[in-house]
Amino acid sequence: MPELPEVEVITRELRSMFKGKRIKEVLVYAERVIRGVSKDEFVKELTGKRVIEVIRKGKAILFNVEDLWLIIHLKINGQIYISESKPPWSMIKFRFEGEKRCLYLCDFRGLVEIRLSKDPYKETFLAKMGPDALSEEFTFEYFYSKIKDSRSKIKSLIMDQGFIAGIGNIYAAESLFRAKIRPDRIAKSLSEEEAKKLYVAIKDVLQDSICYGAAVKKYFVDGKDRGDFSDKFLVYNREGQPCRICGEKIVKITLSGRGTYFCPVCQV
DNA sequence: CGGGGCTCCTGTGCGC
DNA sequence: TGCGCACAGGAGCCCC
């Protein structure tokens, strides 16, 4: 669920609601989602501090709270709810000054991660992260320089967060379909022209999804309707259904242990 | 260097 | 109808 577009939509919402606000209360229901510090230290470090900015890099949400950064990774099923009452599977609650509704971090699987850092780009997983797929640093030159030498399958490569940050299983499938490239192609077998098509497709599909409100409607409950990009998927989760371009049945294979969907006619 | 398998968890959906 | 077993959008780790 939460890949770059979903996390971007959520981050924008969090920024508009909580930027400039002071954290009044932090309540931890599930200690194990906190990494690196104890629960008591976590609460003590955050309580009373003001949110300076809320940004995203790749699939991570970063709250700058004065001298500190709070980093949230939603993993597979993590959800953020803005609510007056406690939703199911709440792991942590944040209450802000002058705001009735609290921020709840929820996950029925409990795989979400939250951590603190003074310098996240040096101290955390962000240090190993490649350029964000929608950032200026993610240039075609950078993209192609890696592709032309890599023996990995192209889908695995574009999902490698150390190479490009933000693409998960869904948008990997969708961008490869748009670029008409099979997911199991070895990266270095792509022509420069194919790589260019894929580069453009990645930026386009992520941007389109964000414009449509991404696929977060049923996960992010704040009373607002924001569409659902999952209606727009061309191959993801469409095994056996007709390709929207040529009518051929969409095929599902397993690649690096992940379900992988493509059109055997359109994608070469 | 690439990839397979296992791990953290639990809910859903499909096939028998 | 009910049960049991993959499988699930992430990612770190170990191992070959």
CATH domain class name of the largest domain: Alpha Beta
Number of helices: 7
Radius of gyration, rounded?
Answer: 20 Å
Structural class: alpha+beta
Let me know the number of strands: 11
Q: Would you tell me which CATH topology of the largest domain applies?
A: N-terminal domain of MutM-like DNA repair proteins
Elements, N to C (H/E): HEEHEEEEEEEHHHHHEE
The CATH superfamily of the largest domain appears as MutM-like, N-terminal
Spatial strand arrangement across the major sheet: 2-9-5-4-3
- Which residues form runs of ≥5 with pLDDT under 50? 221-225
What is the residue-averaged pLDDT? 92
Shape: elongated
First and last CA, distance: 27 Å
Features:
268 residues, five-stranded mixed β-sheet, 7 helices
Summarize the structure in words.
The chain has 268 residues and is an alpha+beta fold. 26% of the residues lie in helices and 22% in strands. The chain has seven helices and eleven strands. The strands form three sheets. Strands 2-9-5-4-3 form a five-stranded mixed β-sheet, covered by helices on one side. Strands 1-7-8-6 form a four-stranded antiparallel β-sheet, covered by helices on one side. A hairpin with a 5-residue loop joins strand 7 and strand 8. The longest helix has 20 residues, at 192-211. It is elongated, with a radius of gyration of 20 Å. The model is unreliable at 221-225 (pLDDT under 50). The chain binds a DNA duplex (16 and 16 nucleotides) through helix 6.
